[in-house]
Amino acid sequence: MKIWKILSPKVLTTEERPDNIASPTQAKVKITQVLLTDTDFRIFGGAGKPRYPVIPGRFAVGVVTETGAECVNVEKNTRVFLHDIFPCRNCPECLSGKTENCTSPKTAGLNCEGYLREFVVADESDLSPLPSSVSDKDALLIGIISLCEAVIDRLGEPKGTHVAVFGADAIGNILSQLLIYHKAVPILVDTDESKLGIASQCGIYYTLKADESLKDNLLRITGGRLAAAGVHCSFSGLAPELAFKATAEGGTVVCAGFEFPEMNAQLKTALDKGLTITAVTDEAAGSAAAINLLVNKAVNTQPFGIAEISAADAGKLFAAQSESTEKSGRAHYGIVNML
Ligand SMILES: [Zn+2]
User: Fold this and answer.
1) How far is the CA of 301 from the centre of ligand 1 (A)?
2) Rounded CA gap, 112 and 29, in Å?
3) Do the beta carbons of residue 27 and residue 127 sit within 8 Å?
4) Banded model confidence at residue 36, pLDDT cuts 50, 70, 90
5) In angstroms, what is the span from residue 94 Cα to ligand 1's centroid?
6) pLDDT digit string (tens) for 262-310?
7) Neighbour-count burial for 251-285, b at 16+ CB within 10 Å, e otherwise
8) Nearest residue to 31 via CA among 79, 86, 84, 85
9) Which domain range does residue 137 map to?
10) Same domain as 248, residue 170
11) DSSP string over 64-119
12) Is 287 part of a structural domain of the chain?
């Protein structure tokens, strides 16, 4: 069946390929929706020297159409989230059976095949069945929710403390909502007022513009103490030192994102304050926990207004959004309807 492939910078093509179950624990899934993110648009544009060809699309939902004889978790018509990170099965951790500690996991749409395709054959262990109360659109965000939960874990016990989050795209927004769910107090910062407006609609009450009054506003909200921790979201167009400046002495700054661009940061502030700088990326999607958060309505994605397009228009979306990433470093996510 049909797959979409990026062959070289700005060349998206389709090809036909058979999709047949080859082992009794595999299932065949009709892909219904794919979320395209800035990673896909950067690969399309050729940024970061991708290894072509790439089948894009990291996040997807689908419906099982056929199962192998030994499948026990899914059956025909089960709605599923397709996992986005896979153990390499070659590193020492994988070879000793601890695939959850894999040191070089593979990511769909980046260094293994993504989901912009009509069907996929996958092992049922790489499929998470979706409860009926979780919509397809929300399920597409499971990977982002898992990343954000990993950031909150890294922050330790953020309950009751101020956390300054820099970058109000999907990751910064969802992280802030989850911090509220975990009873911490996020302060979401961006230069883009429209993104801060969406954040307010999502129930994030402290949103600040990254301008000359930022420090004063932070001091006012935190009662002069600054934030206990900071989070710098990658590809937000904001300088990492903003997070260093916003964080109180001895605090932690987490750099969060699915990838990091080449970047330079002025470290003096961080060193003077004795900050701990760490990073969270590519956490194996804790799908069960993320699905549970969606069931509990911990995240409101309604105001995101992610554009939905047909598969026939995928090429146009790639062209427009890769141009946007080249110009501003930022892109709008898009949902491709594969039905
Ligand atoms: Zn491994």
Assistant:
1) 33
2) 17
3) yes
4) very high
5) 4
6) 888 899 999 999 999 999 987 665 578 999 999 999 999 999 989 999 9
7) bbbbbbbbeeeeeebeeebbeebebebeebebbbb
8) 79
9) 2-141+301-337
10) yes
11) EEEE-TT--S--TT-EEEEPSEE--S-SHHHHTT-GGG-SS-EEBTTTB--S-BSE
12) no
pTM of the model: 0.94
Instruction: Say if residues 119 and 274 touch (Cβ distance below 8 Å).
Output: no
Alpha-carbon distance of 127 to 106, in angstroms, equals 16
Å from CA of 103 to ligand 1 middle: 5
81 and 68 housed in the same domain:
yes
Choose among 89, 105, 106, 109: nearest CA to 31: 109
Ligand 1 center to residue 91 CA distance, Å? 4
- Condensed to tens digits (0 to 9), the pLDDT of residues 122-179 reads 999 999 999 999 999 999 999 999 999 999 999 998 889 999 999 999 999 999 999 9
Ligand 1 centre and the CA of 284: distance in Å? 12
Give the CATH number for residue 186. Answer: 3.40.50.720
**How many H-runs (helices) and E-runs (strands) does the chain carry?**
11, 17
Please give the distance, rounded to the nearest whole angstrom, from the Cα atom of residue 133 to the centre of ligand 1: 34
The whole-angstrom separation of Cα 81 and Cα 130 is 7
Q: What are the tokens at 44?
A: 């399309």
